[in-house]
Amino acid sequence: MDLVLLGAPGAGKGTQGALLATRLGVPKIATGDMLRDAVRQGTELGLKAKQVMDAGQLVSDDIVLGLVRERLATDAAEGAVFDGYPRNVAQARALEGLLAEDGRRIDAVVYIDVDDDAIVRRMSGRRTDPETGTVYHVEHAPPPADVAPRCVQREDDREETVRHRLEVYRESTAPLVEHYRQAGVPVHTVDGGRAIDAVQAEILGLLGR
């Protein structure tokens, strides 16, 4: 199954995507994670991406598409849960082209809807361990005492940057819902403001799993 998760930054796509990937037996393709890995490793791609991500902007389509192409040819050859990609209609069409080369298409789209203020609270409270990449939350999942001193708040998790990212999301990503509907792909909307287990159960039910 090839499944796309849509939703604003901080809506819970990463959490739900990981759970779905395990349940469906396919990998989760999260371009944000791949880009952050490149940033931590200090690669040429990572350095370019860091400037864009710190400013709350979206990384260029050609960079992201190259990352996705590699995954479709390897561990995602039999299906994937796309977390945070595509982010705009142009990327959606590019992904459709890549999948069509292998006789595949997007089977379903799940749109996780969360109130903006709730998203700001979620994201501004996140702290990242720069050594392991593990993400914690000051309220819901605080880091262990021995890890807390080295944890940092990413630039793109600061409140002003989060609100800017939400504006960028509305302009470029929200139209994807209509794009997929017009393409005949089943689009399911779920309330992402509830408990993780409740959201996951509803998604699985909508997918017939």
CATH topology category name = Rossmann fold
DSSP summary: helix tally: 9
Q: Termini separation (Å)?
A: 12 Å
Query: What is the CATH C-level name?
Result: Alpha Beta
From the 3D coordinates, which CATH architecture would you assign? Answer: 3-Layer(aba) Sandwich
Could you say how many structural domains there are in total? 1
Provide the β-strand percentage band: 5-15%
| Integer average pLDDT | 89
How are the SSEs placed, and which strands pair?
Layout: E1 2-6, H1 13-24, E2 28-30, H2 31-41, H3 44-54, H4 61-72, E3 80-83, H5 89-100, E4 108-113, H6 116-124, E5 126-128, E6 135-137, H7 159-172, H8 175-182, E7 187-191, H9 196-206
List its traits.
209 residues; alpha/beta; Rossmann fold; two-stranded antiparallel ribbon; 7 strands
What does this structure look like?
With 209 residues, the chain is of the alpha/beta class. It has one domain (2-206): P-loop containing nucleotide triphosphate hydrolases (Rossmann fold, 3-Layer(aba) Sandwich), CATH 3.40.50. It has nine helices and seven strands; from the N terminus they run E-H-E-H-H-H-E-H-E-H-E-E-H-H-E-H. It has helices at 13-24, 31-41, 44-54, 61-72, 89-100, 116-124, 159-172, 175-182, 196-206; strands at 2-6, 28-30, 80-83, 108-113, 126-128, 135-137, 187-191. Strands 2-3-1-4-7 form a five-stranded parallel β-sheet, with helices on both faces. It has a two-stranded antiparallel sheet with strand order 5-6. Helix 1 packs across helix 9 (196-206), helix 4 packs parallel to helix 5 and helix 6 (116-124) packs across helix 7 (159-172). The radius of gyration is 17 Å and the shape is globular.
